[in-house]
Write a structure and sequence with these properties.
With 294 residues, this protein is mainly beta. Among the domains are: 100 residues, Nucleic acid-binding proteins (OB fold (Dihydrolipoamide Acetyltransferase, E2P), Beta Barrel); 74 residues, no CATH class. 12% of the residues lie in helices and 34% in strands. The protein contains four helices and 18 strands. Strands 1, 2, 3, 4, 5, 6, 7 and 8 form an eight-stranded mixed beta sheet that branches. Strands 15, 16, 17 and 18 form a four-stranded antiparallel beta sheet that branches. Strands 9-12 form a two-stranded antiparallel ribbon. Strand 10 and strand 11 form a beta hairpin. The protein binds zinc ion. InterPro entries: NA-bd_OB-fold.
Length: 294
Amino acid sequence: MKPEYTSISNLTPQTKAYKVRARVIEKAEPKLYPNKTLYQWLKLEDGEGNRIRGTLFENEVESFKGILELSREYEIANAPLRAVNEKWKTREDDCQMTFGGNTTIQPLQAEAGPVLPKYIPIASIPSTISKSERFDVIGVILYMEQVRQVKTASGASIDVREVVITDDRSRDKKSYISDLMAKVLLIREPSVDRIITTIGELELKKLTDTMQEERIWLEAKIPEPDVRKIIAYIGCDNCGRRCEELAGETFKCSSYPNKVCTATARVNYTFTITDGTGELKLTAFGAECEKLFA
Ligand SMILES: [Zn+2]
């Protein structure tokens, strides 16, 4: 007999006896509420794409570890439903799932047999950060760094290797990928010769062919240096952000929660450069800038 499943969109805080067929699409790391209650939230999705959030509390976090796994589909019956806080409601009678009481959970995929990869586009990987989450992707490796060692906060050394992959499918693959590959190589292993770019060339660049780590060399003049654009202020000695403290006072800065920062005199300077092909307004800040005015 085919079981009758309820659509997640029909669940309400009053629904008691029901059965849904749903997949765990997100599972966050367990966390503590300010009152020290342990909780872990997850998101379930049924075949029609309706979603519901569920929360495991205290012992449930451990006991449901192997029962509700990411990416697996389950038949869930009679899990208690609670109303969703007014602020987060996405529909009338919106509810969330808890897992106590008479909840029954049955996995729908066969336990035995090889786990087949479920390939997804890189762009659809959810932004939940959890070490337990795994995703299968097929892509082209654009860059693979040599293994290097980094020190953790506790002093242990771990091997790290940066790998850049792409899976862009919509564009003309071959030229797109070789372009990207050349760009990544240029940034990661810059040649010893400085390649000078012009402001005119820079203006033709689009957001899509720029990378955050790119370093660009320009040969330009500051035609009208203006001393009024030199700004001195009191800021964090680590990140340079402005702060309310007086010079010399220590404080906690949001950019470096683990460091004690000191309010220090800082300088930044805004100026316009030209190289005959265009103009560019730049701001110099940080230690390199301060050296100029010391
Ligand atoms: Zn700071």
